[in-house]
Amino acid sequence: MKHGFIGFGNLGKAIYQGLKDNKGHSFAYASKSNLHTGIKSFGNLSQLTSFADVIWLCIQPQNLIEVLTQLKSINLKDKVIVSPVAGKSISVIENYVGKNVTIVRIMPNLAVAYKKSVTAYCTNNKQAKLFKSVKKNLMTLGKVVELPERHFDLFTAIFGSGPAFLLTILQALKNKISELGISDREANDLLIELIIGTITYFKENCTQKSIDNLIKDITSKGGTTEAGLNYLRKNNLDQLFEKVILEAQKKSKEIDK
Ligand SMILES: NC(=O)c1ccc[n+]([C@@H]2O[C@H](COP(=O)([O-])OP(=O)(O)OC[C@H]3O[C@@H](n4cnc5c(N)ncnc54)[C@H](OP(=O)(O)O)[C@@H]3O)[C@@H](O)[C@H]2O)c1
């Protein structure tokens, strides 16, 4: 299978890293600057699309229309377009390339590079052979979930932006770790173990216990965890996080307009 990336920034590179060791695949890209090294590049989209079976739209939402305008005059009937572009619906792409082109809208996150993404997908052509191949590829890159397109904004807020929200909490913890006088590297190692330990605890118990109960099991009456949690609750952390997700979801909806 031949993959052509239009745009080769953070996400294009992450998808490439996740797929590059799969047997029988080859890769190329075309970007604004074409300055990226390590994989084949093409100077225009016409050359890239004649090379590729799968065309990944790894560009920012504000660049989508200029790219689709270039794709409009190219015959893409035997190709599949995969779009991770936040907030942009399949119908926006169909308006330029036509309804007879197979389009797969996805929402991955950067963990795709390590085959640990959570990726939602939907398509305008479930019967297409190339859609089935794309789905197979996505399944090698982590967990996948088929989702109606109307839910993509919320999914994007939770799973696309989610790593950044979780890392923000990690940063707050790391800021305090610096007071322990240990090296940056050691601080990172300790934080990684903290997260792995927490995830393992969740993974091992989540079918028997709710998250609330898992928290209760860490919280001794009158202890340190309880003191911290009381402060979080008094300051409405739950509501704050709900707002964070709502704001991200709202932005995704606005982009579509
Ligand atoms: N980053 C994430 O975690 C993430 C997660 C889920 C979805 N997404 C979605 O993925 C898309 C890409 O995100 P990103 O973080 O990879 O963006 P990025 O790092 O800013 O990369 C954008 C790429 O687009 C290229 N580009 C700009 N205009 C172009 C044009 N006219 N023709 C061809 N290429 C052009 C740039 O080229 P140069 O490199 O040559 O400048 C760059 O390689 C976005 O729509 C975003 O919503 C991102």
**Number of separate strands:** 8
Oligomer: single chain
What ligand molecules are bound, each kind once?
A: NADP nicotinamide-adenine-dinucleotide phosphate
Strand content: 5-15%
Instruction: Predict the CATH topology of the largest domain.
Output: Rossmann fold
Distance between the termini: 34 Å
Query: Mean pLDDT, rounded to whole units?
Result: 95
Number of domains: 2
Structural class of the secondary structure composition?
alpha/beta
CATH superfamily of the largest domain: NAD(P)-binding Rossmann-like Domain
Order of helices and strands: EHEEHEHEHEEHEHHHHHH
* Cross-sheet strand order for the largest sheet: 3-2-1-4-5-6-7-8
Number of helices: 11
Mind sketching the topology for me?
Elements: E1 2-6, H1 10-19, E2 26-30, E3 40-41, H2 45-51, E4 54-57, H3 64-71, E5 80-83, H4 90-97, E6 102-107, E7 117-123, H5 129-139, E8 142-146, H6 152-160, H7 162-177, H8 184-205, H9 211-218, H10 224-234, H11 237-256
Helix pairs in contact: 6-11
Could you explain how this protein is built, in words?
With 257 residues, the chain is α/β, with parallel strands linked by helices. It has 2 domains: 2-149, Rossmann fold (3-Layer(aba) Sandwich); 160-256, ProC C-terminal domain-like (ProC C-terminal domain-like fold), CATH 1.10.3730. The chain is built from 11 helices and 8 strands. It has helices spanning 10-19, 45-51, 64-71, 90-97, 129-139, 152-160, 162-177, 184-205, 211-218, 224-234, 237-256; strands at residues 2-6, 26-30, 40-41, 54-57, 80-83, 102-107, 117-123, 142-146. The chain has an 8-stranded mixed β-sheet with strand order 3-2-1-4-5-6-7-8, sandwiched between helices.
